[in-house]
Design brief:
Layout (H helix, E strand, L loop, with lengths): L3 H7 L1 H8 L36 E9 L9 E6 L11 E4 L1 E2 L4 E9 L2 E11 L1 E6 L9 E5 L3 E6 L2 E2 L9 E9 L9 E5 L2 E4 L5 E7 L2 E9 L7 E7 L4 E8 L4 E9 L11 E4 L26 E2 L5 E8 L3 E7 L18 E4 L7 E6 L11 E6 L10 E6 L7 E2 L1 E4 L2 E6 L8 E8 L18 E4 L5 E6 L27 E6 L11 H10 L4 E4 L2 E6 L4 E3 L8 H13 L3 E4 L2 E3 L4 H7 L4 H25 L3 E5 L24 H15 L3 E5 L18 E6 L7 H23 L3 E5 L6 H16 L6 E7 L16 H13 L5
Parallel strand pairs: 1-9, 11-17, 18-24, 25-32, 33-34, 33-43, 34-37, 35-38, 37-39, 39-40, 40-41, 41-42, 42-43
Antiparallel strand pairs: 1-5, 2-3, 2-6, 4-5, 6-7, 6-8, 7-10, 11-14, 12-13, 12-15, 15-16, 18-21, 19-22, 20-21, 22-23, 25-29, 26-27, 26-30, 28-29, 30-31, 35-36
Length: about 800
């Protein structure tokens, strides 16, 4: 069955047209902030000259369809704009039929462009293409190095299922100078995308038979884009191997003349198609791909212009725009209301490259700007940023507001009001709308209504309280004596494995908070996503899983705060672990694929841990139990794991040791984990024990219960293995004081047992303090308990 949410996101372009025809809005005038938001002075400088047009080349697109078009339908190539939003600013080029199933179009592009596109059936609302797994095609890619021919195959459409055989492409990408493997490269072929792993390897399943254009693209532009044709046959694998040329960095200085109504107190951001310019290469809220807080901010100059000096790779096809929001909201426009997307193929050579731009206008259409001002509670955590989120056709990505002081925040919305009629908005903290909300618009419910108007509107709101943010008393601290263990003891916090690209900006404050409670370890849980069960597709997916550079950045921030770091890679499954294993075919071919992809997953994180300087790598956990020697399914039956499973595991651990010199721990959940202890445990350095055993009663009663459990099978297990053992606690906070009491009881029990080598709090939510029912301690009384215990256990406080 087709994914309804995916259909909504790819039809945004048509929906916003309908919204623009909605009711005329009322006019509001509640507060005058003119003095707080002065206009820009008259520019004292000449306008820059008109840029020289870039040379162009024609690309011939030829595509084969699965079935003929219906009467009245036509076919188009949709050229996409990833900076604004893939569905928000496409250009459709009609195609001409060569026969009933083959169509053609010839389109000119600037030389060295990297074009992102997909095919669309036009019949009322546009009907987008799907891949063979009936998933939307995000985009295809072609490198324009000169006149050329691109041959594509449409597997299926969003309104019809795929039928037919498929093959696969697998390969490896290396650096042409050093021969080193290249991770985190985007591979686009046949309407599908994947990322290379740490060995530079990739695999793309489910490609229709025929010739496909394969493109390898560096998300940050640091390698020259590569493309070649690849022939696929049904039921067979096509191997490819190639090298990419590294690109030298060039210092590019952008200066821009801004309109008179630019808000001086607002950060002017540089939105672009590269990773370092805010592009997440994923489908975010509302079909957007950029996140405002990840974009560079320009520096205002004394003459009223703005400047950005940045190192960019030579030869990169840069698409960019200036914005007081993101790529869609409050971005620059042409005077006719159209979106602006600039292009620069970064020139090579010595010295700095100067780029001078002029923003024509922030507005789109005749509607006047809307000023949003909000007063928030005094209990709003220091350091939080208030965000505003708009809902024109579905909630889009939140935008950081501009502080006025005294718990007042403001945002002036200029565009694209020409696409809107009546729409909604809401406030939240730290871009976490839907989680850290204003109580008046909490969750995914409807927001506050507003409409466009020909006259300016000043809206003044008040947030009476934040959801999941009460004035909580500190945790009850019991001043019991603590036996110091020294720096070798793990006093840590583990991030929850869920991830969103908006989190990255907040990692510094999260690390600072974890350091402030006295931790000496941070456990990061990067994920890979299981895309298909059969054939088994397991790889990082942008937007759902942190990219290689995201995790590296988080490790670097933690190490800069003098925290030790452990990586605990975790899978993202489409259903509960037990249900997923019961749904797998588990024949010989499937198990080979599982072990191959699991090996890639482990080695990827081993390499990531080694290169980033992480102090430990944690493997295992509940989800691998059926793959262990003599593995059992959740229902107790044999998992049919291959007879040589033990050999495969030992070989994998040996290769992991070669790549990663640090400590390797094995995760054994408690309770239940002792039923699946691996036979190769002696090859590992320690035990990481995710603990969820139920405790109840008073603190003293829970301490006694925890002590009995520890002294029972846990101590027996620890004595048998003679491995360091770290308890990793996860308890929900339906009652925050009850959660704090559990922490107090467990830490007191651990304090009395010197054979326990560490204590970690699991489930920390990095971007915002929330007093919700989750296991996160961020902003809850349980954090006060850790603040008391951790420095004393480490011997820092006596």
């Amino acid at each position: 069955m087709k994914n309804r949410l995916a259909r909504i996101s790819i039809q945004i372009c048509s929906l916003v047209v309908l919204l623009a025809m909605s009711l005329t809005a009322c006019t509001f005038s509640l507060v005058d902030l003119t003095g707080l938001l002065p206009g820009t002075a008259t520019p004292p400088y000449p306008l820059p000259p008109t840029p020289t047009p870039q040379p162009v080349a024609e690309i011939s697109f030829e595509v084969a369809l699965p079935t003929p078009l219906l009467p009245g339908e036509s076919l188009a190539v949709s050229i996409l704009d990833e900076v604004t939003g893939l569905a928000l600013n496409p250009i459709y080029y009609p195609m001409t039929g060569m026969d009933a199933l083959r169509y053609r179009a010839v389109i000119p592009f600037a030389i060295n462009s990297v074009v992102k596109y997909r095919y669309v059936r036009l019949s009322g609302l546009p009907i987008m293409e799907d891949d063979s797994g009936d998933r939307p095609v995000r985009y295809r890619m072609v490198l324009v190095s000169g006149p050329g021919l691109v041959q594509d195959i449409v597997a299926s459409w969003s309104d019809t299922p795929f039928t037919g055989g498929t093959g696969r492409i697998s390969g490896q990408v290396t650096d042409s100078n050093s021969s080193a493997a290249l991770p985190n490269l985007l591979i686009a072929v046949g309407g599908q995308q994947t990322l290379t792993d740490s060995t530079g390897a990739f695999i793309v399943e489910g490609l229709p038979p025929g010739t496909h254009n394969l493109v390898a693209y560096a998300l940050d532009g640091m390698y020259a884009t590569f493309q070649q044709g690849a022939r696929v046959e049904a039921g067979r694998r096509t191997p490819v191997q190639f090298s990419l040329q590294p690109a030298p960095l060039v210092n590019v200085i952008f200066t821009v003349i801004v309109p008179q109504d630019t808000v001086p107190s607002a950060p002017l951001r540089f939105a672009g198609n590269l990773y370092q310019l805010g592009n997440t290469f994923s489908d975010l809220n509302g079909g957007l791909s950029t996140v405002a807080t990840r974009m560079p901010v320009l520096t205002p100059l004394q003459d009223g212009r703005y400047m950005l000096s940045i190192s960019l790779p030579a030869g990169a096809d840069l698409r960019y725009k200036y914005t007081m929001g993101d790529g869609f909201w409050n971005a620059e426009h042409r005077t006719d209301g159209a979106f602006v997307v600039r292009q620069l193929v970064v020139p090579s050579g010595q010295g700095s490259v100067m780029v001078e731009d002029v923003i024509a206008t922030w507005q789109a259409g005749p509607s006047a700007p809307i000023l949003f001002e909000v007063t928030v509670p005094e209990t709003t955590p220091v350091g939080d940023i208030v965000s505003i989120q708009f809902n024109p056709y579905g909630w889009t990505e939140p935008l950081p507001m501009w502080p006025l002081g005294n718990n007042r925040w403001v945002y002036k919305l200029f565009s694209p009001l020409n696409m809107l009629g009546q729409f909604e908005y809401r406030y939240c903290r730290n871009d976490q709308c839907g989680t850290a909300d204003d109580v008046a618009t909490a969750g995914n419910h409807r927001g506050r209504p507003v409409g466009t108007s020909l006259t300016p509107q000043n809206l003044q709101d008040s947030v009476t309280a934040w959801t999941w943010m009460e004035v909580a008393p500190p945790g009850t601290l019991v001043g019991s004596p603590v036996t110091g263990r020294g720096a070798g003891f793990w006093a840590g916090v583990e991030f929850q494995p869920d991830y969103d690209p908006s989190w990255q900006f907040w990692m510094t404050s999260a690390v600072q908070n974890i350091q402030a409670i006295g931790s000496n370890w941070l456990v990061i849980s990067p994920t890979w996503t299981v895309g298909r069960t059969a054939p088994f597709v397991f790889s990082p997916v942008p937007g759902h899983d942190p990219l290689w550079v995201d995790t590296t950045d988080t490790v670097n921030r933690a190490r800069a705060a003098n925290l030790n770091v452990a990586l605990f890679p975790t899978p993202r499954l489409p259903m509960a672990v037990s249900d997923w294993w019961m749904s797998t075919p588990r024949d010989g071919t499937w198990w080979d694929a599982w072990f191959n992809r699991y090996q890639a997953y482990v080695l990827y994180h081993a390499d990531l841990a080694a290169r980033s300087g992480a102090g430990a790598l944690i493997l295992g956990g509940e989800w691998v139990s059926p793959a262990l020697p003599n593995g059992k399914l959740p229902d107790g039956h044999s998992s049919s794991v291959p007879a040589d499973a033990e050999q495969r595991w030992r070989s994998l651990l040996a290769e992991t040791r070669q790549r990663y010199p640090g400590s390797i721990f094995w995760a054994i959940p408690y309770p239940g984990g002792f039923e699946a202890v691996p036979v190769f445990l002696s090859d590992l350095d320690g035990i990481y024990m995710p603990w969820s055993a139920p405790l109840s009663g008073s603190v003293l009663e829970m301490q006694a219960q925890a002590g009995a459990l520890l002294d029972g099978d846990v101590h027996t297990f620890e004595s048998t293995t003679q491995k360091p053992l770290v308890i990793a606690l996860a308890y929900p906070s339906d009652n925050m004081q009850a959660q704090a009491d559990v922490y107090q009881a467990m830490l007191a029990a651990v304090n009395e047992r010197p054979w326990v080598d560490g204590f970690v709090s699991r489930g920390y939510y990095p971007p915002a303090a929330l007093q919700d029912a989750s296991t996160s301690i961020h902003g809850k009384p349980a954090a006060d308990i850790l603040w008391y215990w951790y420095p004393r256990l480490l011997g820092v406080v006596r």
